[in-house]
Amino acid sequence: MSAEATNPVSAAEAAATDTGVRRRGRARLDLRRLGRAALLGATAGPTPRDRLPDAIGHVAEAHRAHHPEADLSVLRRAYVLAESSHRGQFRKSGEPYITHPLAVTLILAELGAETVTLTASLLHDTVEDTEVTLDQVRREFGDEVAYLVDGVTKVEKIDYGAAAEPETFRKMLVATGNDVRVMSIKLADRLHNMRTLGVMRPEKQARIAKVTRDVLIPLAERLGVQALKTELEDLVFAILHPEEYETTRALIADATGSGSPDALAAVAEQVGAVLREADIAAEVLVRPRHFVSVHRVRLKRGDLRGCDFGRLLVLVAEDADCYAVLGELHTCFTPLISEFKDFIAAPKFNLYQSLHTAIAAPDGGVAEVLIRTHRMHKVAEAGVVALGSPHGTAPDPAAPGPADPAAGPEPAEDGERTDPTRPGWLARLLDWQESAPDPDTFWSSLRADLAEDHEITVFRADGGTLGLPAGSSCVDAAYAQHGEAAHACLGARVNGRLTPLSTVLSDGDTVQLLLAQDAGSGPSPAWLDHARTPAARIAITGWLQAHPEAAHQPAAAPRPPLSVAADRSSRAELHADLDGGPPAPVRPAGCCTPVPPDTITGFRVRGGSVTAHRTGCPAVDVMRRLGRAAVPVRWGEAAHCRVTLVAESFGRPGLLADLTEAIATAGAEVVSATVEPPSEQRVRHTYTLQLADAAELPNLMRAMRDVPGVYDVGRTHRL
Predict the structure, then answer these.
(1) pTM of this prediction?
(2) Catalytic residue among 54, 128, 410, 676
């Protein structure tokens, strides 16, 4: 059984109760009373078919508050099946087991979940813990409910042993990829179990709390279910850090029970007055911080002031009103510009939208303000739960044969995807989990992936986008875009500039990944130092294990530059027009190697000769700043010329042979060639070439660029 028993005096339950009172302004429901109602409902005879059992009256009330037209008959049937199948089972505290699915369903109902989710929630433990089969659930409630129940059902420990927990999460995540409601039920299930964890042994409490911290809380954050995430954080905080929790608890108690004026409430009144004067319809609320949030603020700011124990929440009707409120606040109060964030124009990857700002409070503190519409607030609190069925309008759970949930979300009538909750992070997670070779690798990689709570978007050269965790490198981008084909990646251009694969990407970068045509090439062990995503690390590790010779290959020793030379003395004819002086020998400058028909300028050098530079050569500007007079120079009749070209390329076997073959095919002769030692997989080749016709130079350079591995060819241009 997945649920644990209740301990009224545990720190975890105290945290749950305090969080519930502070967030909703009322105590939690008495689960013991619900349990007794369930027993009475079971022993006092059948409930009339035209009304709900008393035990789920609270669920029905919460559900109708969000969905007034909901058909509650299916909830009645689900409750009857759950209660009868769990009858005789008890939690460790002695409560009837049916209190657990009732509590989980009530959590989801309060968040606004639709009827299919609540039906599956009532039944979520039946297949795992009772004689009810999945086929029976499917026959009575339809494929959608059966899919959700199966998604949250644990794998058999007898089959998987110690790997049962990671394999259960793997199964659950795959199901979540098709229907996020699976994870919604799991999060509510874990929340109730955390609320009632007190009778477990301390070591088991700590183990469950750590899994909740490392896996469930990040998933709640990424799915946008802040209402569940914040309470889970407080419950974990109470178990894993009891001293800090008690300190924070005492600070909150002193701040709320001191009888002193509420500084944040005073600011809220001022803000409300300003907005009324500006004729902006808005609701201004004081939103208390939960325990972990107060703890973080204390670590950030030190001594806490009155405004540090909460934030102002301003709710308006339209998006434009959010910016109108922001303008009034920044006009009438002193804003802290460094605290401003616009998550409306650029929503977070978990659907969250709000304007964040902060203003100076009268007591010298800082009052943080959240500005959002009512719809944004609902999504911010409930996340994917507020979005309903990812398959469009949810069919009647009792109706047989709905669309197969495994087929994925259907498009809405307006062409938009109705399930926006399979963003980059979930797609990446589903991709790499298929390659995880064993449960331990999957489990450790999952925790590492979920620990990355920020995401960046980079643009591909073809106009597409890649969502990556913050801190990802070009290696991660390569595997995100090309999968195992990224083994042949040679380098990348970031924002048009060539960069090593170790380059860390920033939000908004444009990345062009360069792949070798040699299918036998593979990654270097050094790539693991730059890979941040599990997909990249798993793929690189797998390739290195399959090619141990590459993993243990010693680094190449530095090589001296390789040079070859031939005696070629003919050059394009150059002439200098000197007034009243003897003819002077003219030669092309080595810094820019001009060839016909380049526009050229000459300067006298030692010995009385003249060097000819291309007009755009940097040396021309240097000469003029030094006061050197230019000498008119011109090309002669001969069309042949000598030019020096530099080829930038990625190192690979046979590259030198392919380049020289391309040069020979283009009709040029190699006067000299220099190959520098490779650096970060890049190699520079410098060729001095003799051309029979200078007009063929563009074709020669184009042929050299077409050689695989060569990414740029240019003429020398150095001082």
Answers:
(1) 0.66
(2) 128
